[in-house]
Structures are given as structure tokens and as C-alpha cells.
Design brief:
This protein is an alpha+beta fold and 130 residues long. The chain is 15% helix and 35% strand.
Length: 130
């Protein structure tokens, strides 16, 4: 097999592999949008996963990603990143793609603004598929 034929075959395979991961029909790898955060009045309440919400933990709410999924969130304004576990559902405000715990928002330096333009990337899916 010639080098050109091999290269063409590899290229054909790579073209068929999607660049973005999909969860329930939504792009999740490299998805960009607005993040917000929550804490305060939700601290100690049960999340969709059954865990108690800890506003200082590295957790987040997402509408469709499987509970237990770990994602890397990058603040596009300052380059700060944090890894969080999806343990709740939301956000319920139009135009937002993820709701972070207050602790995660602090690491991204978005407490004052309340929201930030972010990129989220799936690091690992939940093994339990919860």
C-alpha cells in the first residue's frame, strides 16, 4: 500500500469521527455559552443526584449531561479553569448553559459579575450512568 493511499484512508476515517461529543443531542465538548452560579438558599438541599448541595464544593447543574459527569469549565475572559461534577439539573434561566456552585464560580473569578462566558468540555462520563 502506498503512503498516499494510507494517508487517504486515515483521512477518510478521521473525517467520520465527530469533533464534538454529544449528550442527549447536545454538543458538550467545547460548548460555549453563559455560566451562572448558585449557592446560599440551596446550600444543604438535595440535588437531582440525591447528594446534599454544598455551595463550596466543585459541582454544577446541567440540563442534559448525565449526573456524575465531570466537566472542565474555562472562563473565556480570564482563562481560569475548574473541574466540576454534574450533580444537579439546571440552569433554568434562558441562555445559560451551566450553573456552577459558588466555590467553582469563585475559582473562575466570576462572583462579582454573577455570570461569565465559558467553554465546557467533558472530562469523563459517569460510570454508573446515574
Amino acid at each position: 500500500m502506498s503512503i498516499n493511499a494510507l494517508a487517504a484512508g486515515i483521512l477518510a476515517i478521521l473525517v467520520c469521527i465527530p469533533f464534538n461529543a454529544v449528550a442527549n443531542g447536545q454538543r458538550t465538548q467545547g460548548l460555549q455559552g453563559t455560566a451562572s452560579y448558585y449557592g446560599g438558599r440551596f446550600h444543604g438541599r438535595k440535588t437531582a443526584s440525591g447528594e446534599r448541595f454544598n455551595q463550596n464544593a466543585m459541582t454544577a447543574a446541567h440540563k442534559t449531561l448525565p449526573l456524575g459527569t465531570k466537566v472542565r469549565v474555562t472562563n473565556l475572559r480570564n482563562g481560569e479553569t475548574v473541574e466540576v461534577k454534574i450533580n444537579d439539573r439546571g440552569p433554568y434561566v434562558k441562555g445559560r448553559i451551566i450553573d456552577l456552585s459558588k466555590g467553582a464560580a469563585r475559582k473562575l473569578d466570576m462572583l462579582v459579575s454573577g455570570t461569565a462566558k465559558v467553554r465546557i468540555e467533558v472530562v469523563s462520563k459517569s460510570a454508573s450512568g446515574v
